[in-house]
Design brief:
It is built from 17 helices and 22 strands. Helix 14 packs across helix 15. With about 525 residues, the chain is of the alpha/beta class. The radius of gyration is 23 Å and the shape is globular.
């Protein structure tokens, strides 16, 4: 997730500059009295862009193709013959990272003009589910759009709410290390670390933790250092992935014995992304001691796709004028080679789509692995519904993350309890009616009747997924079963695989037993 607090004061940028820092920010402070009028100015510009979304997408598609015509990829895919989206869809197949890997390998070997002109400015390093470490190109042209989208999320919030006082206090982003390596002259590292290097010098007094602390690799050691640096500070904005924010809050509570809202009385904005916020919201607010405003974002190494532009409306505003061309494939057809590839003008409300991206970093019809659905077409607002590869369909039920998360949310409210974390996997038996979905749950407090809780959870899932309902009715699947996990089970599991902290998170769903079997050792006996 992009470090929003790092770039709140970036006002304009030239994404094609060739300055010594590879791009130039013309920055101005938006602190104090000018914060609100500047935010309203930018917010009004964004509202104008909303009404031109389809035109912008058409322009971007043609511009991307024109700029990459003479690259290796462009020549290979006959870009000079592409004049329409239909031409593009016929010439450029949808690919995931594994299918793009040969091109990325050429870039890592130092070859130029492979996917985009010249070489990438950076290779963002991220974890892949099947391909190990992934290297996503970030170009001179694309980096500024990452920055602008993050800035816009905060400016829209300021414009709508009038709350700008947080910019004068301390702000924190729980991120990965900013230390970068080099591969054939190209800097590589985590996206949050890359962005860390583009913070204007005068902003560093607002930002925590320190650079030295941010460079600590071990998450628990780093967390201790972050707590020591921030516990006495005037924290006003905190940003990160929800489970790691909760760990930070718990550590503060343990050390200071105060709720976060009392420890930081001016804390007013929580910025989140990376996972669905709903399963974590209740516990986070309880630890804070009061409700505060939240801003949701949808960034990734591949691009900053969307951000929450309003506290009043559901969904995130799709970033349609940011050097990215979007296509949408009905999620259930994503593995069909003949699947329809829709543009923005073709989408419908409430349909689950796989998000396909072509960008000015050199990604072409790239399946990012996320699924979304539109909750508004005027303007185009989306919600993230899950991951293509995170589902359960051992019996054809195709249960997705949105369904299990909403089921858990409703039942937790019904039983007035909170969970800390959970994941779901199939448990397959050769005996009739003995297979089931196994839910591994770490509870904050146990329900009074775990069997009633499981039954209610199963019914909620059946209400949301007709295929699962049919399988339970037909006694092909038994109702779900819950395996209760020990305190800190998920933290200990992530530590055991070397993925504690940073941007890492446990998937809600797996179609195999790899994670499930590893979690069994944390079962409450």
């Amino acid at each position: 997730m992009i470090c929003l607090l790092n770039i709140i004061n970036s006002s304009t940028f030239n994404p094609s500059s060739n300055s010594s820092s590879s791009f130039t920010f013309v920055v101005m402070s938006i602190k104090s009295t000018i914060a609100l009028p500047y935010a309203k100015y930018i917010s009004n510009l964004i509202k104008k862009e909303m009404r031109q979304a389809i035109a912008h997408q058409d322009q971007i598609m043609h511009s991307l193709i024109s700029q990459a015509t003479n690259t290796f990829f462009g020549i290979q895919h006959h870009f000079h013959q592409i004049h329409s989206h239909k031409d593009f869809a016929q010439a450029v197949p949808i690919r995931d990272y594994e299918e793009m890997q040969n091109y990325i390998s050429d870039i890592k070997e130092g070859k130029k003009n492979v996917l985009w002109k010249g070489q990438p400015l950076y290779l963002a390093k991220t974890s892949g589910t099947t391909s190990g470490v992934k290297y996503i190109p970030i170009s001179n042209e694309s980096i500024g759009y990452h920055i602008r989208a993050a800035r816009n999320a905060l400016l829209c919030y300021i414009a709508e709410t009038g709350n700008h006082k947080f910019v004068n206090g301390k702000m924190i982003f729980l991120s990965g290390s900013p230390e970068l390596d080099k591969i054939h002259g190209i800097y590589t590292g985590r996206l949050s670390g890359i962005v860390n290097h583009h913070v204007p010098a005068y902003l560093t007094s607002n930002r925590l933790p320190s650079y030295k602390t941010n460079c600590i690799e071990d998450w628990e050691t780093k967390l201790e250092a972050i707590v020591n640096e921030t516990a006495e500070a005037d924290m006003r904005l905190i940003s990160g992935i929800p489970p790691w924010m909760q760990m930070y809050f718990d550590k503060l509570l343990e050390q200071k014995g105060k709720r976060i809202g009392d420890l930081f009385p001016n804390f007013s904005v929580l910025v989140h992304g990376g996972v669905n916020f709903e399963p974590y919201k209740s516990k986070l607010f309880e630890t804070i001691g009061r409700r505060i405003d939240t801003i949701e974002t949808f960034p990734a190494s591949e691009g900053f796709f969307a951000f929450q532009d309003s506290q009043q409306h559901e969904g995130l505003l799709l970033n349609t004028n940011a050097g990215m061309f979007f296509e949408f494939v009905p999620a259930q057809e994503i593995f069909n080679k003949e699947a329809p590839r829709l543009t923005l003008r073709d989408v419908q409300l409430g349909v689950n789509y796989a998000l396909i991206v072509s960008s000015n970093a050199g990604l072409w019809a790239y399946n990012i692995g996320d699924t979304i659905k539109f909750v508004s077409l005027d303007p185009y607002r989306i919600v993230v519904t899950g991951r293509i590869k995170h589902f359960i369909s051992a019996f054809g039920e195709h249960v997705i993350a949105e369904e299990v998360e909403q089921s858990m949310k409703v039942v937790c409210e019904q039983f007035q309890i909170n969970t800390i974390e959970f994941t779901v996997a199939p448990n397959i038996s050769s005996n009739a009616n003995a297979s089931y979905h196994e839910w591994f749950i770490e509870f904050e407090t146990l329900p009074n009747d775990i069997d009633k809780f499981a039954l209610a959870l199963d019914q909620q899932l059946r209400n949301r997924n007709i295929y699962y309902d049919d399988l339970v009715k037909g006694q092909i699947l038994a109702p779900l079963k819950i395996t209760i996990l020990q305190k800190n089970a998920f933290i200990n599991y992530m530590k055991s695989i070397g993925k504690l902290g940073g941007q890492n998170k446990v998937p809600r769903l797996s179609n195999d037993r790899k994670i499930a079997d590893a979690l069994l050792m944390y079962n409450v006996k």
